[in-house]
Predict the structure of HAD-IA family hydrolase.
Amino acid sequence: MTVTREPALYLERIAGMIFDVDGVVTDTAALHAEAWKRTFDEFFERRAQEIGVECTPFDTSADYPRFVADRPRREGLRALLSSRGIALAERNGPSGADPDTMWSLAERKDRYFAEQLEAHGVRAYRDVIALLRDIQYRGVATAAVSAGRTCGRLLAASGMTQMFDVCIEGGRADRLRLPGKPDPTVFVEAARRLGVAPPDAVVVEDAPAGVEAGRRGGFGLVIGLDRTGTSAEGFLRSGADTVVGSLHDLMLVGQRAVAGMART
């Protein structure tokens, strides 16, 4: 178990909690990583055949958290391709002859993720279910945030829709022109929709970019969730106040809300 600093939630100081979806609420980070790997490795293979340049295959354990986790699709694409010295056009030109553009790779990744989701399904982590039930009973507002475009679908498939007051996903963030993490704007927008100030809210994240976003946004508490037990130091460098291996490790401190505040 990874625990650093004091893993306590002082409820008299907390009006809202904001949760990243993939890897914190739902067990889908591995599905995203595999969809990205298939997308990149197929592209690298085509590129090698066409121009004779070999690229290092996508590493789900190293490349996924470093370059694409918790980022909008095109930002993640751009970061990973840049690490391999590759730049692509945003979209096809008038001839439509080039199958590999930022847009086409992003769409391909979404298709592969949908296939993974259909094949494997999705579940919510038990620790987040227990925490959400407890904090909601105590009157804490909740928001779900995802860099992907499937936040609502994932929450519905895992039976978690009613556990959140606000859901902001990648597609909506794009329409609102909200920059991706580590920019804190999406978290600040979630807090605004909850009607709470960032200093009175908690961010729970499982990626360094998200942790950094929480810290840059001035949130009262930023929790790094290290389910694999390998990321504590990176989370602390990114600005986490505490790092836990499970949300069961968090201690809730403070007076319980009256029963009338409980939600169904």
